[in-house]
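S.,

Sequence below, as promised.
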Amino acid sequence: MNILSHYYLDGIAAKPYYNLGLVFPDLIGGFHRGWRLTSLELSKSSKLLESYNWHQDLHNGCLRHFEVDRRFHNVQSFTDCTRHIRILMDEKDIQQYSIRSFFGAHILYELLLDRLIIKQNIKVADDFYASLEAVNPGKLSIFLKENNTMRHDDFMAFFTKFKESKYIYRYADDEGLFYAFKRIMMRAGLPELPNTATQLFESISFEAENYIASKFISIFEELKQPPANP
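The prediction came back faster than expected:
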């Protein structure tokens, strides 16, 4: 699940470190494609900071992120929506651009969920960025070192840029959505999509968005429910 959807599902007012934790694993991956923060690595972090509420909140937010991602990829709505997008991509021959429709459908589904959140209630994005601004950089740096994240200073610069750019707002625009999709494909090692693919992409995303919008409420309700077989 993408960044804003994590916050939309589980964000808590006045809990900036928990909210950061909800998206922190994705931020690490966005900073460096080869880096991953796992629940196992978190469990090995020092016990010295457990007495700090902010540290517990950040830690728990990360754990919730992993829990939701596991569930997200196994609920029926994920299967239904990605199948629908995959059919659209196959019909319009997106594979001519070296994109496997299963992978492309997965990425576009996540982007469109964030897009729909912004379109339906832009205040969610406003609150998300305001929550990140409330995080103390010094405390975040401690957390990075605690979890053996290399290049702490570089990540802090990346985090500052992430907050300032507010690029998630651009998902509401067709051009911004296409740019985000292209960047993810390139990070996956695929050739850059040419501008001639714009019309094809917009056609797919338009039809896919309408389908997902019709299921939007039930998608997040399904994610909030406990697993059938925990």
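Residues 3-224 form one domain.

Coffee later?
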